[in-house]
Amino acid sequence: MAGATRPTTVRERVSDADVSAGRLLLVAAGVLFWGWLLVSWVNRWLGGVVVPVGDPLVAPGLVEGALASLPALATYASDAAFVVQLTPNLAQGTWLTVVITGVSLVVGFFLAVPLAVARVYGRFSAWLSLAYTELLRGTPLLAQLFVLYYGLNLGRYVPGALSGVFPRDVVWVAILGFTLNGAAYQAEYIRGAVESVDEGQITAGRAIGLSKVESIYHVVLPQALRYAIPSWTNEFVYLIKYSSLAAFITVPELYYRADQVASETFRYTLIFVVTGAMYLALVITASKLMERVDDRVAIPGLGAARER
Amino acid sequence: MSALGTLAPAAVDSLGALASGGAPSVAASDVAAVASGLVVGTADWWFIGEPADWWFVLDNADYLGVGVLLTIGLTVASILFGFALGFPAGAVEVYGDGLLKRAVGTVGVVLRGTPIVVILIVMYFVVGVPQINFGVASLSPPVVAGILGLGLRSAAYQSQIFRATLASVDDGQLEAGRSVGLSRFEAIRYVVVPQALRRSIPGFQNEFTIVLKDTSIVFAIGLAELLTRGYDLFSERTTAVLEVILFISAIYFVLTFTTNRALDYLGTRYAIPEGEST
Amino acid sequence: MSDSDDGFLRVSDVSKWYGDEQVLHDVSFEMSRGDVTVLIGPSGSGKSTMLRCVNRLAEAQEGSILLDGEEVLSPDLDVDDLRREVGMVFQGFNLFAHLSAVGNVALGPRRVLGLSEREARERAEAQLERVGLGDQLDSYPAELSGGQQQRVGIARALAMEPKLMLFDEPTSALDPELIGEVLEVMHGLVDEGMTMLVVTHEMSFAREVADEIVFLDDGRVVERGPPDQLFERPEKERTGRFLERIASHD
Fold first, then answer.
1. Structural domain of residue A146, as residue ranges?
2. Using 50, 70 and 90 to split pLDDT, how confident is the model at B241?
């Protein structure tokens, strides 16, 4: 990016101040959002130590009363109370969204690394890897979920050990679907990064007596996985958003619950704007988190070269 | 209307049919054979489904065909709409300043940070899109909502593609344009934009296939494109679930594959000779 | 320096093809323990390829390379075993970009020789001291100058305690003012009696330290002999022409 110089004009300085104010606002919103989620989850797990399970953390009436007393916000008081009334339900759905995304991402990662390595260094396995990634990236995720759920009826075949972990076993089908799909996309990003590692790195590894596999493991991957972080973050963000498709195979995650309430109360506008904002909060958290990770693991002296 | 509420519990018992399938399948479907083989584990795992169910799929090929046309139409319309908004948005992010630039940036972040299904639902229920009448033909509300939703989201992503490629064109190009007497706008229009557009093809390729695949999500607002029609079909004949979904998946795959190859061709055809200095 | 031929490294009639193109034609030479042999020749003459055949980074199709009595080209040989005994220094350094200087040097001892974390680090520190980088232990490659990077490369090879060191144009990628520090380290190794096979264009260095110079052209050994003889009284006309050309560039 150009223009990394010191702000010179008054206008730039003012906009700089705006940026830091915006930053502060963002951090505050983040703390509020995650604080609310964590307290809601813990409250539910511990059987309602803070408020009875199913009740909002703050009484809707209290919010309504407080807002109604402020002339500027009085018109929104009843809407706000309505949203507050929904919060336990939304928090519960968000828990599933977070778990599905997290588990799929991590398991998918462990599939993606061998897929990427096979694609770059394999012969026959390169073709298998290519076929897998092309197939999964070439068909809609929703169709894949339908194949697993409606077509193969996997919901009935959840192993006993996994059964009952979630309120509905179909959650596992969703996790399987997102894992398989995400692995293909992650493999594509990681492959790009593996290819960007200089060939001389493997040669040098081989020259000190490491085997090819050891060279890949100790030399290529530690570099490639670092380089992959920015593009890999995209996949993280995509997965958060596309986890909403689990609703269509009856997984009661965030979108599912929003849709349920909306169809009961007909307050589509409010509910989906709030839901959208919650996804946005998850997405922003993920990308800020990965920016941190990227800075943290950057190789000294190489950081500036990769900055875009 | 709740899209989810209408979901029939169609997780039906197609597995019985699957395991007993002894005759060769009609369509090429060894693709998912591996997957189902893992589950079923029968010796004849490469035969997927019942011939009768495959005939059912083929009998309804024209029904699905209309869905394919809708899918393609929706994709093209959304991409064009997305381009019409996304290109100027990208230019504003590079060349604009002040409030406009920040507004465009913020809208982009919101659209890229929200699931497409939420965007579509908001368009459909919240914006309350009207039926659009062209005299000859008319667009139903779900179609308008689909194009608006997919198009806006695509605009947000396309703006990022164009932002990056516009910024990648060397500053000297703009200066050179100014030095022969072009105005700033003209220099951008005639010198920078033609170069940036060519460089945008790979990113655009990606975006095109994303939109194509995501048209399936208008399922949520009941628009009868390919996936929705598939869903309707297998709800009608619950033994043919796997056959129908594999069939439509294959169609999607052919669509994305041919799109990618076509854009590959476009990329080489319009590449600036001698490669690029980046 | 030894004059007696103990047959430590015996390269005989080595030939290699890339596809249809023959890049090495029956190359032969010998080295004794403690010898320094320098391969010279125009670019594309096959020097680097010959060097890489010795640790099997390139595969020769014909001929024999005996190292300490063992056939290097044998299909049964474990190439990883071979490489832990033969150190290599690259033209482009090839330092592991994600590891500090110590990390680069310690990786082989840790993963290949199986030393403990601590032993490997101690060994790495000692080798970095040896090449004069005791004050840059925790610097990363991208933070070091080219000359420093190449010295880390040498330390990395030395840490495996090799019985033979291969140098593939170790100073060609360096700015002129950085060449000296690398040659100095190499001088030190010669003085310690390290057996070294070196590909280089640094003729004055070759002349000073080599026991034997091998002149390759078009994949063939044109002439070989002690530096004084080869530089002062080359027998072949091609050798003379090459040396003149090099001299006029200096």
1. 78-302
2. confident
Report in angstroms the alpha-carbon separations of A108 from A177, A181, A228, B15, B35. Answer: 10, 8, 15, 27, 17
Number of structural domains in chain C: 1
Whether chain B has a CB inside 8 Å of the CB on A21: the answer is no
Q: How far apart are CA C63 and CA C236, in angstroms?
A: 25
For residue A3, being part of any structural domain is answered with no
User: What's the confidence (pLDDT) of residue B225?
Assistant: 85
> Chain C: nearest CA to A303, how far in angstroms?
10
Q: Where residue C239 sits, what CATH number does that domain have?
A: 3.40.50.300
C240 min Cα distance to partner chain A (Å): 34
Q: Is residue C53 assigned to a domain? A: yes
Q: How far apart are CA B47 and CA B59, in angstroms?
A: 20
For residue A241, is pLDDT > 90? yes
d(CA A179, CA A239): 10
Over 80: is that where the pLDDT of B118 sits? Answer: yes
Q: Given an 8 Å threshold on Cβ–Cβ distance, is A272 in contact with B122?
A: yes
pLDDT at A78: 80
**Residue C157 pLDDT exceeds 80:** yes
- Domain encompassing residue C207: 9-249
Which pair of tokens denotes residue A104? 């799929």
pLDDT at A9: 58
C161 within some domain:
yes
Of C83, C142, C143, the CB nearest to A209: C83
Best C98, C100, C113, C167 residue to mutate vs chain A (most A CBs within 10 Å): C98
The structural domain count of chain A equals 1
